[in-house]
Amino acid sequence: MAVSQEKILSDIENSRNTLQTDKLDMSFGEIMNMYERDEIIINPDFQRLYRWTDYQKTRFIESVIIGIPIPPIFVAEDSQGRWEVVDGLQRLSTIFSFFGILKNMPEKNNWILGAGDMIQTLDGFTCDTLPLKIQLNIKRSSFRIEIIKWNSQYDLRFELFNRLNTGGTPLTNQEIRNSLYRSISSKFNDYLKELSAYQNFVDVVDIPKEKIDQLYLEELVLRFMSLYRNRQHVSKSIALHMTDFMKQCVEDDNFKYDQYSQIFKKTFDILRGVGTGIFNSANREFSTAIYDTTTIGIAENIHLYSVRKPIVIKDKINEVKSDEVYQKMVRSGGNNSVQRVKKRLEFANSIFGKI
User: Fold this and answer.
1) Residue 87: DSSP 8-state
2) Is CB count within 10 Å lower at the N or C end of the chain?
3) Alpha carbon of residue 177 to chain centroid
4) For a pLDDT cut of 70, what percent of the chain falls above it?
5) 3-state SS, residue 43
6) At 73, is the secondary structure helix, strand, or coil?
7) CA distances (Å), 53 to each of 73, 94, 216, in order?
8) pTM beyond 0.90, yes or no
9) What is the DSSP string of 270-338?
10) Beta pairing class for 73-77 and 83-87
11) Kind of pairing, strands 142-148 and 21-27?
C-alpha cells in the first residue's frame, strides 16, 4: 500500500526533531585554548590512534597556511558541556602536536615539516622556527565545528557520524560507538577493551594490526555479546543492533559483566585449541558470518564442548564452511541484514546443538 505524503512529511519532521545540533566557526587558537583547559576531549584510547604520516601532517599544515578550507570537525557534547571529538582527531592532533601541546602522545610533539606539495621550502621548519606571522596565521585560521547536543537520540547520532564523517580515513562503527557512549560512562568501553585483549581471543581471530588499530577486536567482542542468546531482538541491521545493545549496556547499572566475561572466555578457550584462522573464508579473509555462526553456536551449547577434543570442533566448523545452503546464503549478498543474521544464528544452533 502506498504511503501518503502526509505520513512521509510527518516522519521527516519527527526525525528532525529528535536531533539537536549547533554549529560554530572557531579558530585553531581558540580550540587550542579549550584543549589546554580540558574543555575538549581527545583520547586515542577510545578512538583511532593518532596515526597520520609525516607527509599527511605536512600537507595539512600547508593547507592551513595557504587557506584551503578545512572540513568540519564533529564533536559530541557530554553531560558537563565538554566536547568530545568524534571526527577530526587526526586534524586537531596535528595542530596540537605541531604547537607542542598534545597531551596523550607527547612524543609526537614539535615535529619537523617536510616539503609541501605547493610550498617545498617548508622542509625542515618547526613551529618555533616558522616566521611569527605564519604561526599566528595558523592559530587564527577558522573552521566549522558541528556540535551534537547532549540530549540527542544516540542511535541518530550514530547515523549522523556514520554518514557525514568527512575525514581522510572514515571512522569505523566501533570508534563512533566508543566516542558517543564514553561521554555517558567509560565503564563499558573499558570492559570491551579488556575483553578484546584476552589472548586466546586475539590468537583465534588473527586479524591484521591495522584492523586492531581501528578497534575491530572490540567490535567483535561487542558483536558476540549482542548476539549471544539474543536472536529474538535482532530487528535492525547488525551495525544498528550492536549500537542499540551497547547503549543499553552503558545505561544499565545492573549489566551482568561477569556473566558475559565468563561465557566469552570459555568460548575462546575452547576455540583456541582448534587453531588460528578458523573464521577465514575460502579466500582466506576473515568472515563475520563464520565468526557469528561458530562463536554463538559454541557459546549457546557450551555444555557440549567444554571437554571435547579440538578435532570434534574443527569438524563442526568445516561442516559450516562446506554446507551448500549456508554458503549460498553467505554469498548472495546482504550478509549483515536482519534476516541473514537470524538465519546464521538458527543455522549455528542446528549444527552446534548436537554432537
Assistant:
1) E
2) N
3) 6
4) 86
5) coil
6) strand
7) 20, 10, 21
8) no
9) HHHTT-S-TTB-TTSSB-HHHHHHHHHHHHTTHHHHTT--HHHHHHHHHHHHH-HHHHHHHHTS-TTSH
10) antiparallel
11) antiparallel
Residue 266 and residue 311: Cα distance in Å, rounded? 17
Burial of 200 (0-12, 13-18, 19+ CB in 10 A): middle
The cell numbers describing 39, all together, are: 574543555
SS3 annotation, 214-225: CCHHHHHHHHHH
Amino acid at 31: I
Q: Per residue in 141-164, pLDDT tens?
A: 999 998 887 665 555 566 666 665
Helices (H), 127-186: 132-140, 154-164, 173-182
**How many residues are recorded in the chain?**
355
Residue 84: its H or E element: strand 83-87
User: Distance between CA 16 and CA 23 in Å, rounded?
Assistant: 16
Distances (CA, A) of 9 to 4, 12, 16: 9, 5, 11
- Residue showing cell 625542515: 124
Cβ atoms 313, 305 nearer than 8 A: yes
Q: pLDDT digits over 22-47, tens only?
A: 899 999 999 999 999 999 988 644 44
Q: What is the distance between the alpha carbons of residues 194 and 209, in angstroms, rounded to a whole number?
A: 17
CA separation for the pair 24, 267 (Å, rounded): 48
* Three-state DSSP state, 184: coil
Euclidean distance between CA atoms 190 and 246, whole angstroms:
13
- Half-sphere exposure (CA, 13 Å, Cβ side) for 194? 13
State the cell numbers at 344. Answer: 546464521
- What is the residue type of 94? T
Place of cell 586492531: 212
Name the residue among 101, 249, 279 with its Cα closest to residue 188. Answer: 249
Eight-class DSSP state of 113: P
Q: Which residues contact 213 (CB under 8 A, 6 or more apart)?
A: 48, 49, 51
Residue 284 pLDDT: 83
